[in-house]
Amino acid sequence: MREDESNWFSKWEEQLPSPDELMPLSQTLITPHLAVAFDITNNPVINTSPGGVATLQVQHSLQPPPPLSMPLQSPNSGEFDSSELGGGGAAGDEPARTLKRPRLVWTPQLHKRFVDAVAHLGIKNAVPKTIMQLMSVDGLTRENVASHLQKYRLYLKRMQGLSGSGGGSHASSGDAATDHLFASSPVPAHFLHQGRSNSEHFLPFVPVSALQQQQMVAVAGHPQYRHVPHFGSPSNAQFEHPFMARQPHQQQQQVHRMGTPVQNTLQSSYIEDLESGNARKVLTLFPTGND
DNA sequence: TTCTCAATAT
DNA sequence: AATATTGAGA
């Protein structure tokens, strides 16, 4: 038999971080009891600004602890256990099922993961559910992906539009808000052209070397994207809630990982986004690949 | 059911 | 500005 057709897959897997590599960037500069303190009173969180400068903020615990990162223990299909999660706030504990998740923050790394998933699934199979499964990011929902995918597609179309002709950089179609993010990851070539057959399973894929350097390579003639913030700066360590105790009880992953059952679940962390006096909770799924 | 897309909401 | 939510049609 051949060397194999699944070779690309192996390489792809290799590219993924191993469970050990997951920890380093944001773990634990924080002691368990400090973590415990989160639940009682102040919740110190780091807001990572694009410059790599971390800002420490304090969040008054008006809100109950986030519903996510629950260690789904029993096969119970219930999303969350409503033990104490609803109780913390002021009047009225909402039905735990109706709890609102914090907004997801699509970091460049997370987006890259998204792009990788889409690339390897092939355009045809790249539907929200499948993408979500392949990404295997803890706390990521299908709707998160669907929403992102929708915007991403618009981005791709926009890109195709300005291929070749005169080339003003302004596609002022009104939409183009998240282009920075999208530009942060290289767009696999076949995304831009035409819908492919499902049989492009053997992508003429770029060598790993190319994959690993996802530096500020903006897409052809595109506005420069600022440096991706380095997360693990010694001086501005990130506090990480030990939330990630979550055991992926996730449904049987339909996506067969050929050889090694990689289990790379991203860590999730909640930060508060103080926006002009209006604070809203956001969820950041921290990247596993620092690349 | 899930997907996709446009519009709209937060 | 960036995501989420909704609603309609496939």
UniProtKB/TrEMBL annotation:
GO terms for molecular function: DNA binding; DNA-binding transcription factor activity. It holds the Pfam family Myb_DNA-binding. PROSITE patterns: HTH_MYB. Residues 61-99 are annotated as: Disordered. Keywords: Nucleus, Transcription, Transcription regulation. Residues 106-157 form the HTH myb-type domain. It is found in: Nucleus. One of its GO terms (cellular component) is nucleus. InterPro entries: Homeodomain-like_sf, LUX/BOA-like, Myb_dom, Myb_dom_plants, SANT/Myb. This is HTH myb-type domain-containing protein. It comes from Daucus carota subsp. sativus.
